[in-house]
Specification:
With 174 residues, the protein is of the alpha/beta class. The protein contains 5 helices and 7 strands; from the N terminus they run H-E-E-E-H-E-H-E-H-E-E-H.
């Protein structure tokens, strides 16, 4: 009976080694799963303050400034006037600024938007699904997405008016 089990044990050991090697190789060679410059921007479907579900696909053919923020995040609050100014400057040139609020309820987001007087599209990610898809760690984080849906650049941290204007200018006129 011991001789009959030995081939089965060898096959099981072989399968464990192969699967373990695959798992290790996948994690080492696939990176951290965060989207990178040049890759396609991850899709999402999130509820906007306008009461509609929004997807990244609806902005196809436009340059998108996708900003992840929270009202509790001081640098996020400080960059809102710059985002609003660039929205007003570039929206007639095929650029859309989209704010993705992370983890807050609708009333908090609505009150914040009124307080800081912004009118660019705001969508909400209460379940943090888009945060996971985009690999957001510190906030604010902003993705600049070209009209083909590819990530042109990523900015981690607070944006000022000049930097924002320069990056959007390169996005619009590559």
């Amino acid at each position: 009976m011991g001789k009959a089990r030995k081939p089965v044990q060898i096959v099981i050991l072989f399968l464990v080694v192969i699967l373990g090697g695959y798992a290790i190789g996948s994690s080492v060679f696939k990176g951290d799963g965060k989207p990178k410059v040049g890759s396609k921007a991850p899709s999402f479907e999130l509820l906007g303050l306008d009461g509609r579900n929004h997807t990244l696909d609806e902005y196809e053919g436009k340059s998108v400034v996708l900003n992840f923020w929270g009202s509790w995040c001081t640098p996020c609050v400080k960059e809102m006037p710059a985002l609003q100014a660039q929205w007003e400057k570039w929206r007639d040139k095929g650029v859309v600024v989209v704010g993705v609020n992370v983890g807050e309820d609708q009333m908090t987001v609505e009150n914040f938007v009124k307080l800081v007087n912004i009118n660019f599209p705001i969508i909400m990610d209460p379940g943090r699904n888009a945060v996971r898809s985009y690999g957001i760690s510190p906030m604010p984080t902003t993705f600049f997405i070209n009209p083909k849906g590819k990530i042109d650049s990523i900015h981690i941290g607070q944006l000022d008016l000049t930097t924002l204007d320069d990056v959007i200018g390169k996005l619009v006129n590559p």
